[in-house]
Design brief:
single chain, alpha+beta, PH-domain like, 8-stranded antiparallel sheet, two-stranded antiparallel sheet, 8 helices, 39% helix, 22% strand, binds zinc ion
Length: 277
């Protein structure tokens, strides 16, 4: 006879769970996640959920590890919702911190999540929109291969970025995927605008994989085969992709470059915001 892994009672011959217990468990996981995400969007104090959460955990056979997963999933949803519609406000950032503190989410665990990375990036964009270009949210390990100019601050760096140069300008302009955007003041692209439009690189010449740095004055790229510096003031068009960005510089002979394997939403908004300063 088998023992139900949820309620620990007899599950009958050849069975290791009660279908009912399994259903309760799955519903409980979703209920916890949904409730925390809802509390965030409605701005209620996370403490008011505690009793309900304890009950759900008990009735749905949810252990501490599973509960933490639910809290993290709720955090992901909350961040996603916040960044869907607009820039991150201070109030929203504060509320997310409150959620983290209330459920005592482990710092390292949280920082390894995509949603946390997004949150930090969103805060960088807000800093810039407020004229703060200290670069203080960037954590760099090791040395940076860029020679910065006087008064230049490294604001963000992307690792393992693939660089590509367009072979001819005609090919570039004839491409149908992506949409090119002239830099316009005050335009912020929502995260949703970048879904499902990955960079196609088959018609471009690779210029290596390396580090891409964005400062308040330039974009730098350094790979084993090529080093580039693109002044922000010379950029006339940006082409946002979900996983990259295309850049057209001013000048007849300037070849368009595309960088792949980086967060398109973030670099697009970052460069746009900096170019307008
Ligand atoms: Zn059971």
């Amino acid at each position: 006879m088998g023992t139900c892994k949820y309620c620990r009672e007899n599950a009958g011959l050849f069975h290791s769970v009660h279908a009912d217990c399994e259903k309760k468990h799955a519903e409980g996981l979703e209920a916890i996640t949904a409730e925390i995400a809802k509390s965030f969007s409605e701005g209620t104090d996370p403490g008011t959920m505690d009793a309900g959460m304890a009950k759900l955990k008990k009735n749905s056979f949810i252990d501490e590890g599973q509960f933490t997963e639910c809290v993290l999933a709720a955090f992901d949803r909350a961040v996603d919702n916040v960044l869907q519609d607009s820039i991150l406000t201070r109030d929203e950032e504060e509320k997310l911190n409150q959620l983290r503190d209330h459920f005592q989410i482990d710092k390292a665990l949280l920082e390894s999540r995509d949603s946390w990375q997004k949150l930090v990036k969103a805060a960088v964009l807000r800093d810039i929109s407020e004229g703060n270009i200290s670069g203080s949210r960037l954590k760099i390990e090791g040395t940076v291969p860029f020679l910065l100019q006087k008064g230049e601050t490294l604001i963000w760096a992307f690792n393992h970025v693939g660089g590509y140069e367009q072979r001819t300008r005609t090919v570039y302009e004839g491409r149908s995927s992506g949409f090119s955007v002239r830099i316009v003041k005050g335009v912020y692209y929502r995260t949703g605008a970048f879904r499902g439009n990955p960079v196609q690189v088959n018609e471009m010449s690779p210029i290596g994989t390396g580090l891409l740095g964005v400062t308040n004055k330039n974009i730098y790229f350094a790979s084993e085969s090529k080093s580039l510096r693109i002044p922000l003031a010379k950029i006339i068009t940006l082409i946002p992709y979900e996983d990259g960005i295309g850049i057209q510089k001013d000048g007849q002979t300037a070849k368009p470059v595309t960088f792949k394997d980086l967060d398109g939403w973030f670099i697009y908004n970052l460069v746009t915001a900096l170019a307008q300063m």
